[in-house]
Amino acid sequence: MALLSVDELTVTFGARGRESKAVDGVSFDVDQGQVVGLVGESGCGKSVTSLALMGLLPDKGVKLGGRADFDGNNLLTMSRRELRDMRGSQMAMIFQDPLSSLNPVVPIGIQVTEILQRHRGLKGEAARKEAAHLLDRVGIPDPARRLKEYPHQLSGGMRQRALIAMAVACAPRLLIADEPTTALDVTIQAQILELLKELVDEEGTALLMITHDLGVVAGLCDQVNVLYAGKVVESADRHELFAHPMHPYAHGLLESIPRLDAPRGEPLKPIRGSINDRIAWAEGCAFAPRCDYYTMECLTGTPALTEPAAAGHQVRCVNPVREPVEIATLDAGDATVTAHGGKNA
Amino acid sequence: MTAYLIRRLFAALMLLFVVSAVTFAIFFLVPRLGGQSIDELAVQYVGKDANPESVAAVKKNLGLDQPLIVQYADFIKAIFVGAEYKFGPDASTCDAPCFGYSFKTHVEVWPEITQRIPITLSLAVGAAVLWVVSGVTIGVISALNRGTFVDRLAMTVALLGVSLPIFFTGLLGLALFTSQWPIWESVDYIPITEDPGEWFWNLIIPWCSLAFLYSALYARLTRAGMLETMGEDYIRTARAKGLRESKVVTKHGLRAALTPIVTIFGMDFGLLVGGAIITEQVFSLQGMGAYAVQAVKDSDLPIVMGVTLVAAFFIVFCNLIVDLLYAAIDPRVRYS
C-alpha cells in the first residue's frame, strides 16, 4: 500500500453560490522512496493540493472532498491537533520563495531548533548541536556561525538549504516540495535538486515534487501527474511521459521547450491562450479552448482518465495525441531522458 | 557598534543644543524683535513694584544687558558648571545643572524640576505598562478574529479611546470612582519611597485614563501589523513545522509586527515624561506638565527653558534607546 494515497481530492473555495473548484478530483499515489511530480502552470491547483494535504488551508471558505490516506489515516478528516502533530514530524514541506518563507527577524538557529523542540523534545545545547548537524547535512558551511545569523545574511541557495534542513529535521516520511527551485538561479537550482535527490535516496523519504519546470521533472521524478484546471490530465512514468505525451496539453508543454539544436529562426511553439480560457459550462474538457485537436465531443462530456496506449499511462482526453514530440535531450544530474524523436523512432 | 553608539550619542547631544538654541531664541530673541525692551524683561523679574535702581541691578546681575549670544553662552555654561548670581548685597551660587531662578518665585529651577520628575515618571511608566500590555493584547486578539463581533467591539472601543479626550475620561473616572461609588476618597500623589502601596492605589485612575487613550492607538497599530505579518509566507512555514498556534502567533507573528510599535512607543513615552499636561491638570498632579503650564502662564522664562530642555532630553533619550533596540528587534537594520 502506498504511503500517501490521494483519491478524488477536491478543494472548493468561496461561499455557497460563488464556489470555485481549485482542485477537482485529483488522485495519485506516492510510495516510500518515490518521487512523484505534480506538473502544471500557475493556477492549475498544484499548490492548493499540497496545502490541502498538509492541512495548511484556512478553515473558512474552504471545502475539502475525497480522501487523502497517509499511512492508512485520512488526512482530510483528522483533527487540527492530530494534523499539527503530523506536520513537521511525519510530513514536511519546502516552499517556493526561501526568503519570504523564513522569518526575517528570527535567527536561523531558532527557526531550526523550534521544530526539534516541538517534535523531538530537544532543548538548549542538544538542540543547537542537532541544528548545526542538520545545517551541515544539507551542505551549509560553518553551521555554528550560520545558526546565529538571520535569513538576510544568507544567500538564496543557503536559505533554501536551511528550509530543507528544517523540513528534514524530524526525518519525515513524506516531503512535499512546492516549486523549491523557482526563486533560485540555475546553478543553485541544480544543487538543490541534487540535495533533494540525495535525501530521498539515503533516507527513503517519499517526495511529492510540485513544479512547472519540466527539466526538474526529467531530472528527479519517477512518476509524473500533469495537472490542468484542477484535474489530472495525464499520469505516467517519467520515461513514458517524455517519450509519448498523449494529452494535447502535456504534448504542448514538451513541444514548447526551446531546443538548442533547432535551426536558426525557427519559431517557438507555445501553447496558445492562458489557463483562464475556459468553457463557460461545467461539462467538457477545460483545455478545449486552447487545444489544437479539439472536436465537438470535447465540449459535451467530461473525458475520463483512460489508458489508451500503455498500462499505467493514464490520459484524460478523447483525442489523445499519438505522435511523439521531438524534443532535445533533457539532461539533469545523472538521470538522462532521451525522448525519441520522430526520425529515429 | 561602539562607533555607532558614539555617533548616535553625539547626534543626540547636538540635537539638544539645537533645541536649546531654538527655545532660547523663541523666548528671548522673538520678544525683543517684537519690540519688548530689556527693561520690560527685567521688570518681569523684579515684580510690579519695580524702581529704576532694582531694574538696573537685575539687568546687570542676570546679564540682560549683554548681547543675546553672550546670554545664551552663559545659559549653557550655567547648565554645565553652575553660575553665581549677585542680588544686592548677597550672592547666591546656583550649582550645575543650573537653569537659573524663577522670575516669579525666585526659587532655583533645577531642584523644582527634579522634584516633579518622579511624579510625571510614575504617571508615565504605570500608564505605559498598562497601555502596551492591553493595547497589544487587544490588537492581537482583534487581528486573529478579524471581522468577527470581538474584532468589531474591540475596534469600536478603540475608536472611542482615541476620540475621547483625557479631560473627559479622566473627569468621568474621578466622578464615578470618587463620588458616585467612592472607592477612592481622592487622588493624591504619594511618593513611592514613602508608601509604595498608597502610591500605586492613588495612581490607578490616572493610569487607566491615560492608558485608555493610548492603548486604543496601540490596539489599532498592533492589529494592522498582525494582519500583515500573519499573512506572510513564514507564518505558513511555522505552521508547516507543526508549531502550536499560540507559538506561531507570538514567536513569529507578533515578533515581526513589533518594530513599528516600539518606534511609536519610544516617541509617546518620551513625550509623556516631558509632561502629561492635561492628565496632570485633571488629577491635580504637580508634575512637569503642570509646572510648565504655570510657567508659560506667568511668562516665567527660566522655568519654561528648563522644562523644555528636560522634556527634549527625555524624548531624545527615549528615541536613542529605540534606535539601539532596533538591532535586537529588526536585525535587518544595520549599524552603518
Automatic annotation (TrEMBL), chain A:
Superkingdom of source: Bacteria
Sequence ranges assigned to domain ABC transporter in this UniProt record: 4-254
Localization, UniProt: Cell membrane
GO cellular component: plasma membrane
Biological processes annotated in GO: peptide transport
GO molecular function list: ATP binding; ATP hydrolysis activity
Similarity remark: Belongs to the ABC transporter superfamily.
Protein name: Peptide/nickel transport system ATP-binding protein
Organism: Streptomyces indicus
Automatic annotation (TrEMBL), chain B:
Keywords: Cell membrane, Membrane, Transmembrane, Transmembrane helix, Transport
InterPro entries for this protein: BPD_transp_1_N (IPR045621), MetI-like (IPR000515), MetI-like_sf (IPR035906)
Alphabetized Gene3D superfamilies for the sequence: MetI-like
Annotated localization: Cell membrane
Sequence similarity: Belongs to the binding-protein-dependent transport system permease family.
Membrane topology according to the record: Multi-pass membrane protein
Location of the ABC transmembrane type-1 domain: 117-326
Keyword Transmembrane helix recorded: yes
Protein name, per record: Peptide/nickel transport system permease protein
Position of the signal peptide: none
Entry GO terms, CC: plasma membrane
Originating species: Streptomyces indicus
